[in-house]
Amino acid sequence: MIRRIFPIIAFFLAGSIAQAQVHGVDVEVNEGKLVPTVAQLQTLINPNDIVRDVLGWHLVDLKCNLSANPSATIAIPTQMSMLYANVQAAGARNFVTLAFNNTHCGQLSNSGGKTFPDTNALRAEFAAYAAAVVRQVPALAGVSLWNEMNGTFTGGYATTAERLTNYCLLANQVIGAIRAVDSKIPIAIGATVGAGIDTWFIGMFDTYGCMGKGDPTIWLDVHPYLSGMVVKAIRKTDFNEWNDSIANIRGDNISNPLIATEWGSSAAFRFLQANPNDNYITTFETKVSAHDKAWAALSWFPWKDDLKAPNSGLLDRSGTILTTFGLEYTAAFKQ
After folding, report:
1. Which residues contact 52 (CB under 8 A, 6 or more apart)?
2. How far apart are CA 70 and CA 82, in angstroms?
3. Torsion angle of alpha carbons 102, 107, 109, 112, nearest 10°?
4. How far, in Å, CA of 150 to CA of 327, rounded?
5. Is the preceding peptide bond at 6 cis, omega within 30 degrees of 0?
6. What is the pTM of this model?
7. Share of the chain above pLDDT 90, in %
8. Angle at 64 between CA 61 and CA 69, to 5 degrees
């Protein structure tokens, strides 16, 4: 039986700590991880929280003919369909990351690090795939476009200018296609990781032409993997670097809500190693999320320990016992 912890901190606090509207978990079923059961999900999350995964373009658009057939459906893999059904049964909502490439469309690789949908035909097909995801995935809370383009998944581009020029062309087409299906569903753009993200987002809107600046339904996709360690180059902690970046973003009138489609992971473990008697969840709230009121959601990565993340899940590898982070997380957020 899964061990449960009763909440000691309300989901929405009346005090000074800024709370996200919802929380959630990342499950990586698309990468072959097990589909969490309804019971496992309900142990970790509240009704209307999010469960985030990637629904790969190459997995669902096998004939590369969606843009020519707007009413065509995508073939969602069985495991992903099971995930979406379990999330819905748990009273939660699905959040889908759109990525990466599609060899069925003639691209050389499905990898996000090697290539990018950067022709008119590829952008149109990717946008049609995005629209189909919005039409077909049940209990959908929103989508995000790409993943960590300022980091690992560069699209094969050598410079920030190349990346953001092509990213904005794709983002604008995706936004238009999704808005034709649903005028209000949140779309997260930016695909960032790390603390120093201000020049990325400011450039994205002000220089490279991404639409949606100040739009409350266009969210900023961030991965704030922060551990409180000092960044030697700036002689500040990564918490401070993050808050400076967000202040600069807000100073540029970019009022869009933030969504952490990933947080926690090895950064949380590094914090715990350096501060064994501290609580990472409450420290993150105090030093990070409390400094900006426009958080839409925070999704913890990963939902349970595995070989790649042996010390940072909310449940242990068996999926039956709450880890140290799981205890902190449920105490802070579970209703």
Report:
1. 24, 25, 26, 27, 94, 95, 96, 97, 261, 262, 299
2. 25
3. -70
4. 32
5. no
6. 0.93
7. 91
8. 95
Region for 214 from its dihedrals, namely left if φ exceeds 0, alpha if ψ lies in -120 to 50, beta otherwise:
left
Into which CATH architecture does domain 22-333 fall?
Answer: Alpha-Beta Barrel (3.20)
DSSP assignment of 311-333 equals T--SB-TTSSSB-HHHHHHHHHH
What is the helix (H) or strand (E) element at residue 188, kind and residue range?
strand 187-189
Q: How sure is the predictor about 308, in pLDDT bands with cuts at 50, 70 and 90?
A: confident
The tokens describing 88, both together, are: 């819905």
Give the Cα separation of 87 and 288 in Å (integer): 28
Please tell me the total number of residues recorded for the chain in this structure: 335
- Ranges of beta strands (E only) in 2-145 are 22-26, 50-54, 93-98, 140-145
Is pLDDT above 60 for 319? Answer: yes
Q: Which residue has the tokens 């042996």?
A: 310
User: DSSP code of 256?
Assistant: P
Output the pLDDT for position 11.
28
Q: What is the pLDDT of residue 20?
A: 55
